[in-house]
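Q: Two folds, back to back.
A: First:
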Amino acid sequence: AFPGTLIHSEEPWASATPDAVARPTWIAAAGAPSADVPTVHDVECKIVGGRQQQRWYDDAGEPGPPVEVVTQVLWQMWVLRSVGVPVTHADVPALMGTELPVFRVEYDADWIADLATLAREWWQRHIVRGEMPVPDGSSRARKVIEARWRKAERGLAPWPDGLRETAGEYHRLGREIGELEDRRKLIGNGLRVAIA
């Protein structure tokens, strides 16, 4: 059954939207500790494209979900347990081409405790106190920065230490990238002609 979006009972900033929660089953082969004890588990379905399939194998070649999927279902189990759903594990069916393996992720209290601590600290620092996270190079980060710091309406402030050099490097890299892009386009057109 699809539970919808759930909010953690003690941490109102923590939510999860599991794909499904499987009803109790009496089948020991499905993972119950014994034939007499039912289990409830989270279900998170994934479609894995051809370019991502190698990420579903560890260094030894053993299949399994990547760390971000394990983290996702552990978070879901943390939220589910907080609202009274006694999940024991998560099943992750992953459609990979024509195959549909189902990976099991056990409830891991230590991992969940670390995850909750990190998330709580992040929430307090960046949402409650409003500290900006260290930006990455994405266009999304640029939009956040531009929204937070609008263009100055008065004169320019003096350069902080080292910022002039950083700005110079930024402009130099932009020129180099432009030259490389032009060369790449030239080579690409040459290749098109050669193989046409």
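A: Second:
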Amino acid sequence: RGDLESQIAQAESDITRSLAQDSLVASSHDTLARVRQNQYRLDAAMTALAQALELNPNDAQAWHFQGRLLIYSGMPERALAATHRALEISPRDPLRWQFFHHLGFAYILMGQYELAAAWCQKAMVVVPFWLTARHLAAALAHLGRMDESRAALKRLAELWPKPLAGPLHGKHITRTSNNEVYLSLTRQHIAMGLLK
């Protein structure tokens, strides 16, 4: 399959060709936004996603992705509205656990640990996901709820038995962001919570 960089370059080539043939397909702009995010070009990703949402303002997944991009851009407060919009459009979405997960993620980066824990717990009920367990453990630790935090860490180890890389545990399956504000918030609210 080749290395990640060549896969991203191929995806960029394919989606650019698709958009040249028809620039009015919302999902093509959404795909371009995802390619740009993987290139760490978050402003370009936001531009492409804005075009997707202009063409299809009722796409819950696009609204959710906008919320994720805002988190990765170091703007978790702005991510809340986009992610809540996704939930309004598709309250029974099969991937709603991801909406819950990213609401929890945004709240933890804002230092609102009670809300972060509540949304992470809601996500874990729908689909237990290792990254949600990590965020939940950090939020609970910040709240001084150490027994619950340890239980979330135990669940994390069950869901992802491989050692996590680095102090941020950020070297995982997908690329997210190299935005300094985002990285600083992640260190402050997640890594420091996990170190308690």
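Q: And?
A: Residues 74 and 181 are 5 Å apart (CA to CA).
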